[in-house]
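Our collaborator T.R. sent over the components below with a one-line note: 'Predict the complex.' Nothing else. No constraints on interfaces, no templates requested, no preferences about which chain binds where. So this is a plain run: every listed entity goes in together, and whatever single assembly comes back becomes the starting point for the next discussion.
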Amino acid sequence: MSGEHRIGVFVCECGGNIGDVVDVPRVVEAVKGLEGVVYARRERYLCSKPSIARIREAIRRRGLNRVVLACCTPKMHRETFRTNIEEEGLNPQFLEIVNIREQCSWVHGDDPEGATQKALDLIRGAVERTKWSVALEAGEMEVTPAVLVIGGGVAGITASLRLAEYGLKVYLVEREPSIGGHMIKYPKVFPTLDCSQCILTPKMASVSQNRNIELLTYAEVRGITGVPGDFHVRVFLKPRGVNVEECIGCGTCSRVCPVETVDDYNEGLGKRKAAYIPFPQAVPSAYTIDFEACTRCGRCVEACPRGAIDLEDRGKEVELKVGAIILATGFQLYDMTRLPQYGYGKYPNVITSLQMERILDVTGPTGSRLIVPATGREVRSVAFILCAGSRDTEVGVPYCSRVCCLYAMKEAELLRDRGVEVWIHYIDIRAPGRRYEEFYRAAQEKGVHFVKGKVTEIIPEGDRALVRGEDMMLNAIIENPVDLVVLCPPIVTGEETLRLAEMLKVPVDEDQFVLERHPKLDPVATKRDGVFACGMVIGPKDIQSTTAEAEAAAMKAVNFLSRARRVEPNKAFLIDEDLCDGCGRCVEICPEGAITLEGGKAVINEVVCSGCGACIPECPREALDQHGLSEEQLKAQIRGILEGSEAEIKILAFLEETVVYTAADLAGLARLSYPSSIRILPLPSMSRLKMSHLLYAFAHGADGIMMLEAPEKEGPYGRAHVISEERAEEYQYEIEDHDVDGFRLWYSKVFVPDWRKLEKIFRTYDTLIRDEGPLDQEVREALLEELGEGPS
Amino acid sequence: MSTLLAGRVIRISERNGRFSERVKALSGEEIDLCFQCGGCSSACPMTSQMDLLPSKVMRLVQLGEEAVLKSRTPWICSTCFNCAARCPRGIDIANVMEALRQMLLRSKFDHLKLETVGREELREIPPIALISSLRKFTS
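Returned assembly:
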């Protein structure tokens, strides 16, 4: 291979940042003796304009075809260097950056000799690796200028309108017969007490009139395939029995329908017909036949003046093509029958807050009369139980549901306006946010009684319910018989949302809310490219925050679809079709689902492949490899770092390149100090490592190997990190078969906030290996022979 | 407010910390997790007999206030575990009550003074009840 390589190496002193510790002139001299290196020089500040000009000049004048830069972390100036060498006609693959500041001078300040030796070893690794690099071009992919919005509540409506306004095609999918979500069920909204329907129905009408929005109500998403930028979505339009285009909403069908069933729009309070419209302002303004209740008597079919009803409707499936997806499926309430102490479902005068909303609505099940729905008894006193399941690590949910304090006060105020005595039992009143403290005060002004103390017992007492709770201010128990108890249940993610999240490969957190890409800095993007989320699906929140998130998610989608997607070239590939016997193990292991079998051969979708490398060790026939990180490149770098090193103890530390590498940089920045035996080699994920790589490293001089992985949720490659943990465990046993003790392989997970731990981990492992001594030379030679390389 | 606490100044010293730690060690409960929601008192069937509600006992233990040992509450507690079942922070409050009883018993305190029990009563009370009353579910 040598001969054709003209490698130039530039070693930066970074003022004194590197030069005060690493003997740069000595490194440069040693580098000049490496095979393939035709030019080497030191630079005071490699990132300065004159230095960059010198690199460019050397490429031109000396015909360099590979450039190795030893300087600070590649996260600092990689883009600058890459652009400059690209402008000189070199493919970016021919640039290697060696980190001798954060990983060398800054962490080995007390060991200049070790730091110098290590700098040289790391440079040698890069020089060896670059000999095996091949030119690669980044691909481009056209995106589909359409967005799927799942969920037609206030979040989905807001996002859809914004996207349509921008000019994108929007498919808005809603499972209910009408859009409007939960918000349309509220008579008033806090803190302004404006009429919810008055502010939401104009937006709903805009959705139905907007030419860019295709509304699919009474529908569910059945499957999602394809890749970010080009998703293929199967949507099932549930059998509705009514042709939405033909229906004029006259209501004749409902009037003649003889079947009554539970009214789910009214939260199970009251009845509706099997031919129904959930509420008068529904969008689309069309009726629906509830086939679960319908007896197929046919009266509606005869009565319909438009002939719009078809009782044989089986529903149908449509396929949509979109570039991005917004998940806006909202929330549901915790099932309160699971907390029997409150008697919900058992005592007629215990209801949920959503049921209270419906009772307070003029179009609600009681015609806005304040009665206990089940008994018809007039309501003169109401007690609200806050945290009825929220903030509970034992039963219910551990988190705060955030909106309950405010909506309870809202419902309380509406009840006070009608002369009802209202008690709110709370643990803490949480009313932070604009106009919220004022809202709390207004509730007090209206005479709402606030009692600090969690109620955990409801006892029936005649027609009433006895609320028994402590008044924490008093060291006394308050027993209060009221006409109606309103529970404020936890806000939780619905089953259907969880099913969708799985389908979308979007992870949820321990509370089952969709995990943000970054909880602070990227709050409406999910971990998956092209999939965004807004509203309650990412956690309990009020309508203001929900609409703000919806606007943000829409703009993120616009941004995502605004240009062709760059497809990085670092993908796994099948070396030779003939090698593949179609066993399907790679298909099984791929965390992204990027591999399929076609005609008995593995086919890797280059757009979906994240380049984690998990499939490569999985292949029993060694038929897979990776662009930009080929077997040859990886082995050459391992060999380069280890072989020829004069260090007494050599520990090869493979670091996950996004999270753990950043942690190592932070350790450098803080000038933590760890032994110079640690030599870092970044990899996309530890799942890229084969057993043979470890043996190769031991054979060529490693005394210990570390695999430092990012925790699953932090890293960009999802499940690849789980795979690596399982493999590392196996490897620890397997190396013993080659007479290498299991302790010579270390595996642990490090995440960025934990970066201080790295120092300890490195020190501990160095001490362990130092105590046990270098790997036996005979073992090394046996390994070399086994690997077919013979003693060197 | 209970006479036990009326007008009392709780002056914090190192002693308070030690008392808290002792109750924690004896009960094995994470007492600091209590955020004073009052759910235990709401669920407790014996509150009418108590001078301090269970939540207040928890608060005093958090503060390390030894006056809590003078309270009747640990002796009224029937160990029905309703409080533990309702606690949203997973604290077994009945265990804390037991720890307080243990501390008193170890200081040779008898909840029931036998000499105050009349002959008539002694004849009527089953011996097991006497022993329970002396030791209160405590070994």
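Summary for T.R.: The radius of gyration of chain B is 16 Å.
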